[in-house]
Write a structure and sequence with these properties.
- The structure is a single chain.
- The chain has about 475 residues and is α/β, with parallel strands linked by helices.
- The protein is built from 15 helices and 18 strands.
- The strands form three sheets. Strands 2, 3, 4, 6, 7, 9, 10, 11, 12, 13, 17 and 18 form a twelve-stranded mixed sheet that branches. The chain has a four-stranded mixed sheet with strand order 15-1-14-16, with helices on both faces. A two-stranded antiparallel sheet has the order 5-8.
- Strand 12, helix 7 and strand 13 form a beta-alpha-beta unit.
- Helix 4 packs across helix 13.
- The two termini are about 25 Å apart.
- It binds adenosine-5'-diphosphate, 1,6-di-O-phosphono-beta-D-fructofuranose and magnesium ion.
- 1,6-di-O-phosphono-beta-D-fructofuranose (FBP) binds next to loops.
- It catalyses: beta-D-fructose 6-phosphate + ATP = beta-D-fructose 1,6-bisphosphate + ADP + H(+).
- Catalyzes the phosphorylation of D-fructose 6-phosphate to fructose 1,6-bisphosphate by ATP, the first committing step of glycolysis.
Length: about 475
């Protein structure tokens, strides 16, 4: 019987305490050659090719120059509405920003996706740097914005909502902001709520989402009809990979209808599984909270004879929470993540787990596969092993803090991170960018084409040094052969 566990089906990433089982790169700062990519210059392929000899290829919104510099650009409203008027950015008159040396981000600023390069390698993919632009494409009193939150919870959602509202109001003088309640379906099945700085003043101190959320219910046409009917011209969409896919469809439909509506995505997920960006908001808070569960398991296991503690954490297909919580805690003896197939004494397959548990083919309303609860299964297997094979009685404590780590308010650093995300999204929408997701790339906030963050799921790389650090700290088996790593 094949008993090896196949990671894609793991529901979450348990970490164990105490466990029953026993180049050198040249780092260079990329040199930025002066490449003029002011939006009007490179929106239109042919125009760009003629105007700038250094640009030798452009595929859709991608520019490549002779140095292997690739700009993965985001759409701009003027791509399909060339006559859209622009206005001076009201931040010019802001007292707070008056002392800033460089209030506006240059249209030539780009953020490198890969900052560890070698002298002769191409300079690689870059994204537009996020931040306020000299010109905006909306008059403050004509903005009618809306905010929606979709998918699972995550610490910090309320901070993002609060800072979008306050950012729009304080920086751009916008006071027409709607909250769409209950996720995507809220566009057509619920009433909206009016958001002002006063209404959202304290919400960052609470977990969850002030606007409520849901899975499923994305109907692009109905959503865009509703956006149009309500006269909304800026749409802020906070959510994970599924939500961002939905946001891309909304942007496409808006473009098809030729509407002057900016669509901005703010990536949210507790799992940290969104590609390109350094880290998702709330992740640090969740890892911190997971310490409490690991600590409890450790204390319980240490305080009795033959104590074993198991903690189950979230992560779907990505084991970042378990990996970072383990690295931070140092009390964990074995960390199991979906990316790393593991075996018990005879091997242990997810198929085997599936035989013992119903519901393997079920999906949630968004189409996400409902994964098996590996934590409970593992707990039983370990108990069985000790009683049947080793003839020992163990004292097992199983802790499942999964929803507790995502339902809390964000910590201080996540709050600041959420503020930057929200403000970057506001600056981007006001500047007329659309169909973008915002997020930090190598610590600099950037506007990223939505497809880039949805086309792949970020996973722990077992061949990276971080996983090696974890193996070294727990002293657990790697479960992998060297040949598996290639
Ligand atoms: N491929 C898709 N196209 C359009 N909408 C989607 C898609 N995947 C998910 N959605 C919608 O996005 C919302 C959230 O998706 P879900 O997968 O539950 O959470 P998350 O965004 O956190 O990954 C749901 O309303 C769902 O209907
Ligand atoms: O909220 P639900 O439907 O119980 O789903 C739980 C899932 O949500 C998550 O917490 C977050 O997933 P999303 O970011 O895709 O919403 C997963 O870690 C977990 O598997
Ligand atoms: Mg998701």
């Amino acid at each position: 019987m094949d008993l090896s566990i196949h990671s894609p089906l793991l529901r979450s990433s348990p970490s164990l305490s105490p466990c029953p089982f026993n180049s050198k790169n040249t780092t260079l700062n990329p040199v930025f050659h002066s490449l003029n990519f002011d939006s009007r210059n490179f929106q239109r392929k042919l125009l760009v090719s003629r105007q700038n000899q250094r640009i030798r290829a452009q595929v859709s919104d991608q520019i490549v120059n002779d140095h292997g510099f690739v700009l993965e650009d985001v759409p701009h409203l003027t791509n399909f509405l060339p006559d859209l008027p622009s206005y001076p950015n009201p931040l010019q008159k802001s007292q707070a920003y008056a002392i800033v040396k460089k209030t506006f981000v240059s249209s030539e600023d780009a953020v490198a996706q890969n900052i560890v390069i070698q002298k002769d390698t191409p300079r690689g993919v870059h994204f537009r740097r996020a931040g306020p632009r000299e010109k905006v494409y909306f008059k403050s009193d004509e903005v009618r914005a809306c905010i929606v939150t979709c998918g699972g919870l995550c610490p910090g959602i309320n901070t993002v909502i609060r800072e979008i509202v306050c950012g729009l109001n304080y920086m751009y003088g916008v006071d027409n902001i709607l909250g769409i309640e209950g996720g995507y379906r809220g566009f057509y099945s619920r009433n909206t709520t009016t958001l002002t700085p006063k209404v959202v003043n304290d919400i960052h101190k609470r977990g969850g989402t002030f606007l409520c959320t849901s899975r499923g219910g994305h109907d692009t046409n109905k959503i865009v009809d509703n956006i149009q009917d309500r006269g909304i011209n800026q749409v802020y969409i906070i959510g994970g990979d599924g939500t961002q896919r939905g946001a891309a469809l909304i942007y496409k439909e808006v473009e098809k209808r030729g509407l002057p509506i900016a669509v901005a995505g703010i990536p949210k997920t507790i799992d940290n599984d969104i590609a390109v960006i350094d880290k998702s908001f709330g992740f640090d808070t969740a890892v911190e909270e997971a310490q409490r569960a690991i600590n409890a398991a450790h204390v319980e296991a240490e305080s009795v004879e033959n104590g074993v503690g198991i903690v189950k954490l979230m992560g779907r297909y990505s084991g970042f929470i378990a990996m970072f919580a383990t690295l931070a805690s140092r009390d964990v003896d074995c960390c199991l993540i979906p990316e790393s197939p593991f075996y018990l004494e005879e091997g242990a397959g997810q198929e085997y787990v599936a035989q013992n548990m119903p519901g393997v083919d079920e999906k949630d309303a968004s189409g996400n596969r409902l994964l098996l609860d590996i934590g409970l299964w593992l707990t039983q297997k370990i108990k069985d092993h000790f009683s049947e094979v080793r003839k020992m009685t163990i004292n097992m404590k199983y802790i499942d803090p999964t929803y507790m780590i995502r339902a809390i308010p964000s910590n201080a650093s996540d709050n600041i991170y959420c503020t930057l995300l929200a403000q970057s999204a506001v600056h981007g929408a006001m500047a007329g960018y659309t169909g973008f997701t915002v997020g930090p790339v190598n610590s600099k906030h950037a506007y990223i084409p939505i497809a880039h963050v949805t086309e792949a799921t970020k996973k722990v790389k077992l061949t990276d040094r971080m996983w090696a650090r974890l193996l070294a700290s727990t002293n657990q088996p790697s479960f992998l052969n060297r040949s598996d790593n290639s």
